[in-house]
Amino acid sequence: MIEQKGFLNRQPVFFQMMLLIFLVFACTYIFTIAAMVIVGPLYGIDGADTLILKAVENPQGIKENMNELNAIKLIQFFSSLGTFLIPALLFGFTKGMGTDFLKLRSKISVLMLVAGMALIYLSAPLVNEIYNLNKLIDAKWLGNFGNELLESDKKNKLLTDLFLFMPNTQDLFINIFVVALIPAIAEELFFRGVLQQLFKESFKSVHLSVWITAMLFSFIHLDFYGFIPRVLLGALLGYLFVWSNSMVVNIGAHFINNASQIVMVYFFQSGVISFDAQSDESMPWYITLLFSLVMVGLIIFIYKKRVIEKEPEPEIIPDSIFPDNNYG
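Above: the chain's sequence. Below: its structure in token form.
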């Protein structure tokens, strides 16, 4: 049976990219307006559009008003839906009509799911060390653009500190949902599920698609000092998607990366542990080394199980199909 391609699959990748960008802008606009409309009456806030500005200019004031902080989290929730999740789903289901383009229905290996989550968790100390090295790069050599990036870094840090302010257990669970789970689902569907596969179609190269997607994934966060470590984390997630062929595995790994940091911050704020995950403090070198070695071993294990062992063996042609050659 000849498989019939849908309308979108018959179009050039450039056209598909333009459609994806249109969906991003359209959905972002719609969901931003929806958030502003809902936040006002739901939280009794006038001028919801000024909340983010207030959060940057007076973060302590927001911390003292949990009503406003929860309103900001709701806006962030709608932002994740509109910018990444809904465009990815609309595009993925349109492009993959009758197929599993987004790899949401792929058979899930429990071993692969656990290995993927462990892989990302083990990478955390090394990623933190690379982050500290990235901070040695002076953004000012980029001129005005570098100054804008640093200003964006400052605002992002203020907002992150606000989001991770968790005076009670309820705030922990809200953050696990809004900051860990939803971004994990939305970003993996958008970057690995859609963009990486489109780049693979365009460039005919798995490696190029993984690294270009990882760079875009990092750039979109507008975090200069976190750019290089986030590229490496994005590449790790990209290869995990290639090896597992399952979006669920990637979502699980991304979720663990986000949730583990949130839980550690909560434990620090609660006085359970003395390590501040929000600081630039490095883990002890032996822990970083141990985690990194186990991570490399796990990468080799996953690659062997999912790639090498699945490569088809060369077909052996029986001698009997060749005519006898007697040169004697």
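Residues 313-323 have pLDDT under 50 and may be disordered.
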